[in-house]
């Protein structure tokens, strides 16, 4: 692992030099105030064509970002040169999502230039914080999957590992969310509207990707069967490279995102004939592939476009990996010794068939050698236990869109099922369950099965999740290939999620145990004794209060709601899905409000409930839950002076907003139905910033509770086994409704239209779903949840004890660093070693 001391020294120069003596090297790479000042002014003039007097804030942001990128570039070039010269094994991370967030502050922090930059800009009459706010979030993901990928890239670079990320350069990322009359309204996320100063386009490395067409079969001169995929349409994948800077190291890795471009931009003959629309039709059809993150796949055209997206970026990436390998090798004998490819969930699983196609059809390797190589190269990370999220594609779409890949999948399946048959003779049901093809009214290709069969490693992302994969979702495969299955509990980067977003707490921690925790999070255990130190507890409380006041100011400016900083900040921020049970939280708020109205003495301490979430545009129930939360907020906030309860739903939840919320949170709501959440990483960020968890035994909650201690965690709810048992017994929510007068009162009030006076029946689908089925056991866990919430308030009244618990949470979550996770991937799956980059 690279340490901070290996980086090129960055020493602020207290005496700015006259611009006349700034060298070219300092202009591009200088790390002192004077060099950065001059570089900034140089980019204002020569890149933005502005004078300092006429430059807008946007001009200043782009110019300063360019100056920072210059300082990354020398390390970036040297990193790639080092990897090439040493012919190192590289880890390639294939992910359809990356939630990177803003890059300016993160890059400055990782290079040790944050305060130098602040001073340089101050001398120029500019404000660093204002420039940071100008940068749009790179929202190329829906939630935890994309944010995890971003944390992993950060850790690979910080650990000095030869890593390379691949994905899609979506023109429009995850939608911008507005709340209008309580409803979610989606707008296109134009994150590229003003350009992206961090990326570099590489048109000379564009890759041609084929769709449709047909397959021709013949025999070669040596008698081997040969397949040729011909005809159809070709789309170009143009790579855009973004530097990923490690902390305290010279390593700068690459994230390569592919943008679709038509192979023929314009049909001049059609244009001349007056058919203007058809003359650009192919261009439009091709470029829609990378237009938007995840189209609505509730209809066939949407399904086909989504499969196109997945194959497009995988085909481009595989071609790029093979091209890079062949620069230094003439055969594929060492391919698996130089290449490790990790599939981040099932979206890139088509990579198994694509690499087989390249090796057998294009490079003419025998099938057995190609298959052995493919299995040695690929690792597969599963991120979900939900059956609907384990991707399946209709064979009919595959046949039309990717005919050669369907043939290859059939060939893989035939050989694989023969193995199953030999291992388990006459077990036809097992063969049917394990087949890559699901039989039925419509044949489907099971992408998760393809990923498992084509990989040497299959991992879950939390201990419970991995056990459930082996016991339930992928049981047959775990029985046949037990050696492939392993756990890699997720983690988060402490650089962005503590040092950068919570500078007050970071400085307090470093004042006691030094800075080493930034790259070795286990060092946080050194805080343990300070949990008993009254002075440290008081300082910790002051930091939390300042963070709460900062968030309250932001909420006031954003929503005209004045949160009481004295209130308990109870936070649930995550993607809106029924299994994550924002609805359970909402029902409890109604319970508390009704109780406070009846009995003012029940108000022990003010509460502020803070939500942030986006619902998939086609997910009606999730969007209805958002409307309910906003309906509750409208009523409760108008009555806050009497009840002490406030509710806010912060619109457009994203990375930069999360960076404001985590430091201020006191309660972390991790209340998913047990057995539904693969891991979660928000739970780790909350604990790292000193929030106490209210949670079920689900995902990584279990490991967090083990780490911080059961006494520092508010546990409630059914276990995974109890959930399964209740469902097996024919549980229905109406049973709870009829037995519990308080929940009945809450549901009846919502059903009456009290929170939706414009449409009395608006929430009937929600209530009916709870009563008729309650698939996610909201009502079954309601009483336990209500009781733990009452415990939370009583515990909060003893602030010293509360702060002791919070400090212990921070001190004991060192294991949840993404550095630890990535080190495990590198050592146990990829077999990739750190490489020292010398400038």
Report the span from N to C terminus: 17 Å
Arithmetic mean pLDDT: 93
State the secondary-structure class.
alpha/beta
**Beta-strand percent range:** 5-15%
> In this structure, how is the largest beta sheet organized?
10 strands, mixed
- CA-based gyration radius: 28 Å
Unreliable residue runs = 1-19
Based on DSSP secondary structure assignment, what is the total number of beta strands?
25
What's the helix count?
36
> What's the shape?
globular
The helical percent reads: 40-55%
Summarize the structure.
The protein is α/β, with parallel strands linked by helices and 839 residues long.
What would the keywords be for this entry?
839 residues; alpha/beta; 10-stranded mixed beta sheet; 6-stranded parallel beta sheet; 25 strands; disordered N terminus
Q: How would you describe this structure to a colleague?
A:
- The chain is α/β, with parallel strands linked by helices.
- It is 48% helix and 15% strand.
- The protein contains 36 helices and 25 strands.
- Strands 1, 4, 7, 8, 11, 12, 13, 14, 18 and 19 form a 10-stranded mixed beta sheet that branches. A 6-stranded parallel beta sheet has the order 22-21-20-23-24-25, with helices on both faces. A 3-stranded antiparallel beta sheet has the order 15-17-16.
- Strand 23, helix 28 and strand 24 form a beta-alpha-beta unit.
- The longest helix has 30 residues, at 57-86.
- The chain is globular.
């Amino acid at each position: 692992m690279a340490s901070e001391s290996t980086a090129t020294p960055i020493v602020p120069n207290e005496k700015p030099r006259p611009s006349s003596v700034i060298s070219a090297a300092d202009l591009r790479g200088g790390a002192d105030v004077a060099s950065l000042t001059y570089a900034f002014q140089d980019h204002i003039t020569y890149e933005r064509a502005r004078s300092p007097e006429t430059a807008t804030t946007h001009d200043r942001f782009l110019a300063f970002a360019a100056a920072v990128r210059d300082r990354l570039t020398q390390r970036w070039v040297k990193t790639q040169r080092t990897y090439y010269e040493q012919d190192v094994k590289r880890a390639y991370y294939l992910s359809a999502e990356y939630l990177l967030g803003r890059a300016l502050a993160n890059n400055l922090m990782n290079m040790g230039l944050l305060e130098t930059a602040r001073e340089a800009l101050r001398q120029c009459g500019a404000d660093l914080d204002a420039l940071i706010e100008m940068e749009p979030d790179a929202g190329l993901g829906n939630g935890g999957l994309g944010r995890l990928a971003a944390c992993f890239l950060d850790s690979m670079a910080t650990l000095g590992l030869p890593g390379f990320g691949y994905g899609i350069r979506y023109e429009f990322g995850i939608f911008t969310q507005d709340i209008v009359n309580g409803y979610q309204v989606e707008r296109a996320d134009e994150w590229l509207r003003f350009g992206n100063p961090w990326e570099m386009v590489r048109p000379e490395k564009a890759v041609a990707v084929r769709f449709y067409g047909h397959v021709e079969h013949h025999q070669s001169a040596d008698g081997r069967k040969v397949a040729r995929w011909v005809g159809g349409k070709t789309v170009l994948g143009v790579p855009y490279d973004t530097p990923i800077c490690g902390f305290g190291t010279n390593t700068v890795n690459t994230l390569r995102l592919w943008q679709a471009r038509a192979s023929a931009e314009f049909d001049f003959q059609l244009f001349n004939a007056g058919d203007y629309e058809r003359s650009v039709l192919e261009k439009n059809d091709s470029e829609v592939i990378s237009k938007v993150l995840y189209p609505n796949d509730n209809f066939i055209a949407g399904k086909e476009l989504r499969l196109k997206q997945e194959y497009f970026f995988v085909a481009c990436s595989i071609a790029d990996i093979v091209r890079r390998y062949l620069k230094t090798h003439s055969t594929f004998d060492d391919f698996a010794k130089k290449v490790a490819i990790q599939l981040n969930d099932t979206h890139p699983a088509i990579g198994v068939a694509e690499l087989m196609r390249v090796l057998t059809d294009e490079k003419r390797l025998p099938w057995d050698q190609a298959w052995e190589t493919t299995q040695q190269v690929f690792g597969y990370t599963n991120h979900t236990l939900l059956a609907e999220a384990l991707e399946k594609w209709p064979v009919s779409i595959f046949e039309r869109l990717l005919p050669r890949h369907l043939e290859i999948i059939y060939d893989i399946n035939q050989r694989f099922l023969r193995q199953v048959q030999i291992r388990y003779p006459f077990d036809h049901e097992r063969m049917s369950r394990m087949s890559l093809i699901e039989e039925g009214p419509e044949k489907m290709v099971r992408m998760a099965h393809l990923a498992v069969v084509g990989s040497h490693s299959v991992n879950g992302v939390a201990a419970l999740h991995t056990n459930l994969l082996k016991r339930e979702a992928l049981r047959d495969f775990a029985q046949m290939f037990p050696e492939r299955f392993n756990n890699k509990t997720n983690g988060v980067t402490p650089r962005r999620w503590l040092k950068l977003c919570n500078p007050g707490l970071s400085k307090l921690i470093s004042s006691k145990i030094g800075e080493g925790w930034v790259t070795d999070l286990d060092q946080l255990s050194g805080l343990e004794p300070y949990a008993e130190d009254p002075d440290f507890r008081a300082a910790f409380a002051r930091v939390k209060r300042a963070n709460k006041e900062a968030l309250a100011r932001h909420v006031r400016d954003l929503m005209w709601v004045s949160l009481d900083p004295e209130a308990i900040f109870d936070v649930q921020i995550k993607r809106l899905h029924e299994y994550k049970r924002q609805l359970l939280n909402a029902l409890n708020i109604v319970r508390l409000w009704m109780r406070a109205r009846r009995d003012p003495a029940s108000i022990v301490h003010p509460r502020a409930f803070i939500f942030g979430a986006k619902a998939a545009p086609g997910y009606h129930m999730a969007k209805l839950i958002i409307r309910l939360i906003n309906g509750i907020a409208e009523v409760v906030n108008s009555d806050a002076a009497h009840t002490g309860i406030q509710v806010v739903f912060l619109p457009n939840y994203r990375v930069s907003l999360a960076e404001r919320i985590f430091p201020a949170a006191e309660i972390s709501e991790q209340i998913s139905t047990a057995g539904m959440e693969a891991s979660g990483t928000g739970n780790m960020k909350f604990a790292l910033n000193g929030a106490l968890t209210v949670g079920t035994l689900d995902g990584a909650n279990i490991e967090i509770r083990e780490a911080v201690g059961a006494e520092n965690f508010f546990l409630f709810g059914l276990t995974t086994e109890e959930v399964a048992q209740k469902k097996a017994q024919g549980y229905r929510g109406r049973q709870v409704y009829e037995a519990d007068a308080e929940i009945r009162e809450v549901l009846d009030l919502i059903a009456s239209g009290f929170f939706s006076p414009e449409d009395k029946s608006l929430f009937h689908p929600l209530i009916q779903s709870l009563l008729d089925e309650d698939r996610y056991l909201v009502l079954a866990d309601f009483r336990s949840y209500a009781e733990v919430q009452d415990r939370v308030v009583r515990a909060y009244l003893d602030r010293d004890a509360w702060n002791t618990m919070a400090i212990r949470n921070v001190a004991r979550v060192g294991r949840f660093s993404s550095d630890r996770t990535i080190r495990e991937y590198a050592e146990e799956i990829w077999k990739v070693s750190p490489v020292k980059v010398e400038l």
